[in-house]
Amino acid sequence: MMEDLQEIIVKYSFPIRDINTSVTISEVESYANLKLPEDYIFYLENYFGIDQFIGVEFIKLWSLEEIIEANKSYNIVEELTRTIGIGTNGSGEFIGIEIDQFDNVKIILSPFIDLNSKYNTEIGTSFTDFLVRLDNKIEWFS
């Protein structure tokens, strides 16, 4: 699975994090009251956010420095149980990680406007799966 993630990171030239940040993974986990998935932690620790097309879809993934602020400004963590926003599709919807009570991970797409889990669309079963689906040109944002 990590090989798939590495492959996509290289293919799409994710910007490498070469400086330490004032925000830590544990601060983000504590804020969201969630244990973030390993593949997503790897991405956060080693890369900056991206703002580009992957496959046929445009995505913006937030950097470690932006996550808490972005979630606060949209009230994502406060409104949605066991969910944290990790980016956006640039069209009024956020990309998030939802973790159920059994620690199963789902990557979701949901509108910013009406924060209600009934509007969540599953777009991946892990951070890596989400990127692999994008790379395979699966369209779900439209």
Structural overview:
The protein has 142 residues and is an alpha+beta fold. The chain has a single domain, classed as SMI1/KNR4-like (3-Layer(aba) Sandwich), CATH 3.40.1580.10. The protein has helices at 2-11, 25-32, 38-46, 64-74, 76-79, 127-135; strands at 50-54, 57-61, 83-88, 93-99, 105-111, 121-124. A hairpin with a 2-residue loop joins β1 (50-54) and β2 (57-61). The model has no long low-confidence stretch (mean pLDDT 92).
Query: What number of domains?
Result: 1
CATH topology: SMI1/KNR4-like
Low-confidence stretches: none
> Would you tell me the structural class of the helices and strands?
alpha+beta
Series of secondary-structure elements, N-terminal to C-terminal: HHHEEHHEEEEH
Helix content: 25-40%
Calculate Rg over CA atoms. Answer: 14 Å
* Proportion of strand residues: 15-25%
On the 0-100 scale, what is the average pLDDT? Answer: 92
Write out the CATH superfamily name: SMI1/KNR4-like
Number of strands: 6
CATH architecture: 3-Layer(aba) Sandwich
Could you tell me how far the N terminus lies from the C terminus, measured between alpha carbons in angstroms?
Answer: 27 Å
**Major sheet details:** 6 strands, antiparallel
H/I helix tally: 6
Write down the overall geometry: globular
Question: CATH class, anyone?
Answer: Alpha Beta
Strand order of the largest sheet: 1-2-3-4-5-6
